[in-house]
Amino acid sequence: MFLPFLSNAQTGLGEGIRFESGLNWKQIQAKAKAEHKYIFMDCFATWCGPCKYMNKEIFTQKETGNFFNSHFINVRAQMDQTAKDDQQIRDWYADAAAIKKEYQVLAYPCYLFFSPDGALVHRLSGSRDKAKDFISDASEALDTKKQYYTMLTHEPEFKNDSVALFRALQTAMAIRDEKSVVLLGNDYVKIKNDLFSKQDITIVTRLLLDDHTYKKEGTVFLIKYARRIDSLMQDQNFAEHLVASSIYVKDVQPLFINDISPINWRLTCAELKNKYATLDDHFLVYEEMYFQQDVAKEIKFIINNQEPPITNWDKIFDSLQIQFPDYPALARVFLMNKAFYCEDHKLWADCVNTTYTLLKDHGEELLHDDINNFCWSYIFLHADDKVTLKEAIKWEKIILEKSDEKDALYTNWVDTYANLLYKTSDAKGALAWENKALEIVMKENNTAKVNAFQITIAKMKKGEKIWIGVRDTKNYSR
Fold it and tell me: Which CATH architecture does the domain made up of 8-142 adopt?
């Protein structure tokens, strides 16, 4: 088996790192043991941009070569497989797969460091802008007090050393070693008398995500010191955002699980605000988001248990008002789910009428892309009356006035607006906007959308109908 072929700069003909060639993995290990040198392994993928950058800009520098060639046996290991791979690379597929599995190489670039005896002692990930930074990080692989895996092996010996723990934690988080993040993170927070630094809050945050046993303790800490943490992190709602889910699960969700009715949202908000007075009131925004999701599930459950076609929509809404009194968003959530139901059952007239009411009465409450999806999927494709179409045009115009090309979905909104104008016989305006959308996607080199918009423009110029059926999803995904 052979390692992947390398460029001249990487095989000793240049000044950079000299990577081994023509040796299999066992032979490389044997060479390292005989020369009593550590092994540096660059695990890369052919599609990885940062890998290419490191290979071209960092590995080829003289200072990088001087350091690595003096201290390591250097190897590169291609972790993916392509049709362009030569025989040397193909012969090494098995070793690459084994290393990937054994050492959990999940992200690239990944750098593995082995002792002269072949034991994995250290690991790095990601690219570096400067050679000196990469050299500095890699030098830790030669120091037994800084080697990541050596530290993990001797974790009990340094569990009271906050500096060593934090260094190991940084590596664990960088390489996504979640098990070690939990182990080291818990050791770290236990010995720290003061967790009020950005790096400490980052660790607390990570533990909240990765360690369910720490969730209660971490949540209590964030709630108690929320304003101080918000100020430290320079984010008015930093702590609030992190604890909102836990608060909802503890204080609000049981109302649904235990089938308690009615659930008065305003009263619930007042109780939450009083109970969690240390938090900024904005945490209630997150609570309402979770509450809305559960209300939507309840509405969907009620609707789906009705015999189709549903004719008693008013009665259903009246019962929901009793179940969720004083919930301002109830009508909007109800209308959205009614529209979804009508779509599922192909009740297009009801779907169009419901969408019209939704936009007219609650357009300001909707997200931009929700407005666009309703306007396209229900009104453009299925509405014919001018009043409804003009309502959709009004809202598409509003979201375009409030956004710009930086929005990822901007060209979708422009496209919908153009098509709505076209359907109301404003061909001139439609072509102007569709051409604008085309110009943007051409600059983005978005071939799929370029083709789709060009087809639409051609049909508009010919005066052909373009709203029969649903959009051809083969052209592009919205």
Answer: 3-Layer(aba) Sandwich (3.40)
Residues 6+ apart with CB under 8 A from 224: 278
pTM: 0.73
- Angle (CA) 19 21 26, round 5°: 100
Q: Where are the domains of the chain?
A: 8-142, 346-478
* C-alpha–C-alpha distance, residues 165 and 167, integer Å: 5
Secondary structure letter of residue 449 according to DSSP = H
Distance CA 118, CA 452 (A): 55
End-to-end CA distance of the chain: 47
Show the DSSP H helices in 276-312 as ranges: 283-304
State pLDDT tens for residues 4-55.
444 333 444 458 999 998 899 999 999 999 999 999 999 999 999 999 999 9
Chain centre to alpha carbon of residue 438: 28
Distance (Å, rounded) from C-alpha 173 to C-alpha 374?
41
- How far, in Å, CA of 67 to CA of 70, rounded? 5
Whether 237 and 230 have beta carbons less than 8 Å apart is answered as yes
CATH top-level class for 346-478? mainly alpha
Q: Sheet harboring 110-114: ordered strands across?
A: 72-78, 38-44, 110-114, 120-125
Nearest to 187 by CA among 223, 149, 242, 167: 167
**pLDDT tens across 197-219, in order?**
998 998 898 888 777 788 888 99
Taking only Cα atoms into account, the Rg of the chain, rounded to an integer number of angstroms, comes to: 30
